[in-house]
Structures are given as structure tokens and as C-alpha cells.
Amino acid sequence: MRKTVLFAIGLLVLAVSAAQAQKLTGAGATFPYPIYSKWFSEYSAAHPGVEINYQSIGSGGGIRQATAGLVDFGATDGPMSDEQIAGSKIKLIHLPTVMGAVVPIFNVTGVTELKFSPDVLADIFLGKISTWNDPRIAKDNPGAKLPGESIIVAHRADGSGTTYIFSDYLSKVSKDWANGPGKGTALNWPKGVAGKGNEGVAGYVRQLPGSIGYVELIYALQNKISFGEVKNASGNWVKASIAGVTEAAASVKAIPADYRVSITNAPGPNAYPISSFTWLLVPVKSQDAAKGKVLKDFLNWMLNNGQNEVANLYYAPLPKSVVAKEQASINSLQ
Question: Cα angle at 326 between 323 and 329, to 5 degrees?
Fold first, then answer.
């Protein structure tokens, strides 16, 4: 009798463990990959049997896989378009996770500090400014010993939310950019070399003298690559920081119901102009109820525990007003 009871208890324990053991898959943005990697590892460690496998393939890939129902969640730095939402096989919700900064990184011989006004930055990437000692760059950087080396532009090869953020900013500050390459996750670049992921762009700039590119802040810091100050909408020179991103977000008085919002070129004396939210793309109703329960629990953990760690990786935590609004959205997931 005792053996029978113990056997039954053992089966119950195995059943409970099996129910708790879940493997979630996600794919998308490289912009938040450092913090996502940390979060997924810590959450799995605290929840035995739960594994979250995330592929850092770029926002374009994340949108494609999430809308096709190939992953349990996607990730993007550029919100989906109305057309993409309408064409999705799965009804998805954008859930903000952190905020971050995209920075202009450079490798200029003998120069470690540079300032970029908006029009100059746009014209560099348009190919209208082709050497580092161009008078317009020199005007913003009096006293800098600028070499005559040619400018090599490095941009993303893959569909990229970082590209979306950068091009969203350039479209706001330059009519030529808005009427040319425009805004999007994938662009017809006027010139340059293409790297895959933030890692690829950082790698090119680190290796190529005379190069300039754009990456999420932590990739510049981790790779020890110089990045410039940018003149903001208030006319002040600002270097990317957590405080600058937070001030940019504070300019939004009301977050829309679908959370799709741009905070580039935001007003504020210290607002960093190339700032953005980044989002997870989560099914409103999970195809697998058990996985949906785990995903919902992770999202709550992200808001209540994960936000405390983002500053260590140079991201800005979500505003309290966004957290409160998002908590209600998460609770409504099925």
C-alpha cells in the first residue's frame, strides 16, 4: 500500500514538473539582445524547467516570424506598420520592454570626440559629405584635427529596428532624407558597407579607419568605439545617456493604446534625440495555453524585477506610467 502511494505521489510530481517545464522561442531585435539574454537566463534559473530561446536576427526577422506564428514571441525596435498588423496570422500586441539610445559611432584617425548636427549627420549618410575634414563637420568641431580621409558609411544589411530608429530620426530632421531613403527597417542606402546586426556594424567601424555607423549604445561601449554628441531639438549638444533617453520619453504625455510611439527628436534641454522604446510582439491569445501562462508570468517578472537591472547595461527603465498601463495589458492576455 505504501509503495502504491509513493508511486502515485511520484507520478503527480512528474506531472507537475512536466506542466511547469516549457520551452519558449523568440526572435528579433539585436538592439535589446544584451538585456534580453540576461533576463531570459535569470528567469530560467529561477524557474526550473523553463527555457527561453531567443534568436537575435534583427527586427525584420522578428516581425516575420511572429506574424507567421513560427515563434512564441517576436521582438522589434520599429513598431509594426498597419499593413503588417492587418496581414498577421496571429493577433499581436506591442509590449514595451526598455528604452535605449542609438549612437553615431566613428573611427577617425587621431580623433576621439566629435559633434554631429542633424543636417550634417543626414548628409554624411546620404553621401553628400564625403571627407572628414569637410567644412561643415569642421564648423561643429572647432579645434579638432580632422583628417582628409574618405568617409566610409557602415549600415545594416538585415531588416533592423536600429535602422528604423535611426532613419525615423533622420526623416524628422532632414527633408532630403525623408524624401530619399525615408523611414523603415530596411532601406535603399545611397552608399556604404553592410553589416549584419548591431554586432556587424560595430565590427566594421572598429576595423575600418574613416568609418561611421550607428548602433545601440551598449554595443559602442562594449566594443570601446568612440561615439559622437548630437545636437538635439533644443539646440544643445547631448551625448547618449540613460538620463537623456528618460527625458526624451517624458515628452510623451499619453502613450497610445497600442504602445506604438516615437520619441526621436523629442523636446527637452537634455533629451537625447535618437532614443526609442523597444517592444516584444506577444500573441493576444497563445496557441498553447501552457506556454501562454509561462510567457505571461515572464512578462510580469520583466516589469516587476527585470526593470531594476536595465541601467547596468545602459538601457533606460520604462516610465512608471507605462509600467502601470502595460500591467493591465499583460493581465488581459489569454
Answer: 160
- The answer to whether the CB of 140 falls within 8 A of the CB of 120 is yes
Cα separation, 250 vs 245, whole angstroms: 9
Q: Is 330 helix (H, G, I), strand (E, B) or coil?
A: helix
Give me the amino acid identity at 75: A
Q: Give the CA radius of gyration of the chain.
A: 22
Torsion sign across C-alpha atoms 252, 257, 259, 261: negative
Point out which residues pair with 108 in neighbouring strands.
111
Distance CA 70, CA 89 (A): 10
| Percent of the chain with pLDDT strictly greater than 70 | 94
- The Cα–Cα gap between 78 and 102 comes to 13
Full-prediction pTM beyond 0.90? Answer: no
Closest CA to 111 of 126, 130, 133: 133
What is the distance between the alpha carbons of residues 182 and 164, in angstroms, rounded to a whole number? 9
Q: What is the pLDDT of residue 20?
A: 58
> Tell me, what DSSP letter sits at residue 208?
S
Q: How many CA atoms lie within 13 A of 255 on its CB side?
A: 19
What gap in Å lies between CA 202 and CA 193, rounded to an integer? 12
Amino acid at 279: W
Q: Mean pLDDT over residues 144-161, rounded?
A: 94
**Cell digits for 85?**
498588423
CA distances from 263 to 126, 189, 255 (A): 23, 23, 11
Among 184, 190, 193, 228, CA closest to 60 = 184
| 161-173 and 59-67 helices, crossing angle to 10° | 120
Model confidence pLDDT, tens digit, residues 31-71: 999 999 999 999 999 999 999 999 999 999 999 999 999 99
| Alpha carbons 321 and 20: distance in angstroms, whole number | 32
